[in-house]
Amino acid sequence: MSEYREIITKAVVAKGRKFVQSTHTITAPNRPSSILGCWIINHRYDAKKRGRTIEIHGHYDVNVWYSYHNNTKTEVVSETVSYTAVVRLKYRDDENVVSDDHDIFVRVIQQPNCLECTIASSGNKIVVQVEKEFAAEVIGETKVWVAIHPDGRDEEDDFDYDVDEELENLTPDLLLGDDD
User: Dihedral through CA 167, CA 171, CA 174, CA 175, nearest 10?
Assistant: First the structure.
């Protein structure tokens, strides 16, 4: 009888992380005088495994509040921006991966966030710098080996879950409290 057993189980077989900074140019209908605010909403994404990478395809809405007409009027311009991010994977143990059937889990560590929003020198253009970060994991079948104790289970390793002796000396009044 062998002293080890081979078990096939699901485990994290690869991981990756990606920090992305990008610049988007948004065209305003009026010539901006100043930027009053910028925020990013409605972030959605989908991920697929491609070889030794995870491709994330997503989009979000960039909203810029700006003044125009010599700071006498304001307006919000909104634009949906699409992106693709590629996360390189680092595999733990290539030779113990049993099958190519994998589950992928991608989570956003940092939602898309506006770093800086400025007026371009060309006039009606607004330049928005955005950052975001992702973490990806690949769950797949892998092999693990466990040692087998040749004599079976040792009775001394059993835990004693008997707590009756500890509970005998408890005063129930202390547990319920006194509502005087």
Answer: 40
- Consecutive 10-residue averages of pLDDT for the chain (180 residues): 82 93 94 95 95 95 96 95 95 66 92 95 91 94 82 61 62 61
Determine which helix (DSSP H) or strand (DSSP E) holds 168, and give its type and residue range: helix 164-168
Q: What residue ranges in the chain does DSSP mark as E strands? A: 4-27, 32-50, 53-68, 73-88, 90-91, 97-119, 125-147
- Separation of alpha carbons 57 and 157, rounded Å: 52
Q: Which of 80, 77, 58 is nearest to 67 (CA)?
A: 77
**153 part of a folded domain:** no
Residue tagged 């921006």 (tokens): 81
> Which residues constitute the domain of residue 88?
4-147
What's the pTM? Answer: 0.73
Assigned domain for 112 exists:
yes
What is the domain count for the chain?
1
> Is residue 152 a part of any domain in this protein?
no
Q: Tell me if 160 is assigned to some domain.
A: no
